[in-house]
Amino acid sequence: MNHVAFFLVPGVHLLDLAGPAQVFSTADGFGHPYTLSYIAEQPQVPTAQGLPLVASLDWPDLGPEDVIVVPGWRAPTLAGGPAIGAASLQVLRDHHAGGGTVASVCAGAEALGRAGLLDGRRCTTHHDVQDELALRHPAAVVVRDVLFTADDRVVTSAGIASGIDLALHLLATRHGPAVAAQVARDMVVYARRNGHEPQASVMLRHRSHLDDAVHRAQDLIDARFDAPLPLSDLAAAVGVSERTLTRLFGRATGGLTPLRYQQALRLERAEHFISHGATVDAAARSVGFEDPRMLRRLRARGTREF
Predict the structure, then answer these.
(1) Which of 228, 297, 286, 296 shows the shortest CA–CA distance to 262?
(2) Which tens digit of pLDDT belongs to each residue from 44-71?
(3) Which of 84, 243, 245, 282 could, after both became Cys, cross-link 235 (CB 3.0–4.6 A)?
(4) Strands 67-70 and 2-8
């Protein structure tokens, strides 16, 4: 029986907590026993979304096989976040010193930093506060724009939904990737992502504009990125000329053409397949490249062009 103890602070984000809790609870339902506990420094914890939570004031007995997870909270800055008592920080230190795993989601990395657990270790957090985390904890090795890191039983993840990726990683480490995949399927998670994958996908990076025509074109490319998509067909579907679509697309996406956007989607998906064991040739075929050499060229250039 493995124990997962969630340490809750005022303003905790519900998904930071609920995502990992659902992962371990689902694993328990598949025959991998987990007991979940919720601990706080006050019996009722207000959440960022307004739903109060009831927590225990007493920590359970934890051993080396158990995990403490610190979900993140809402605050304008890490420095302006909730106070955490010395006794709670000592629990984090003692658990790690005793061979246990300590994990955080989003701003929860700040609690690990206050406990001294980030010193000399790779860590990450939400992209909005990565720079502040590095400034507040200069001995930490803050890795930017990744989903999660794991370093000597200190596991940190980016914001909100990445807590699911972190928890699936812990399952895969303990029970094998098949169990993590089973849980991900049951939770209808689109893909089980590796830690080095970027926090913002290609879709998110190029969807912050307000151009309806470009959004419609992107919807079509997103849905059929692995198929041939002539510019003429895209323009006709959106209701503008090819020249107009190219101009609007470049202005909205920072210089990309529809083809380059499609290539970026293909490259991102191919990298996901490769990170899960596919060969370059197989990944190229899966995402629509007729010639694997095109994927190799794009990988050599990297994502900086997109």
Answers:
(1) 228
(2) 999 999 999 999 999 999 999 999 999 9
(3) 245
(4) parallel
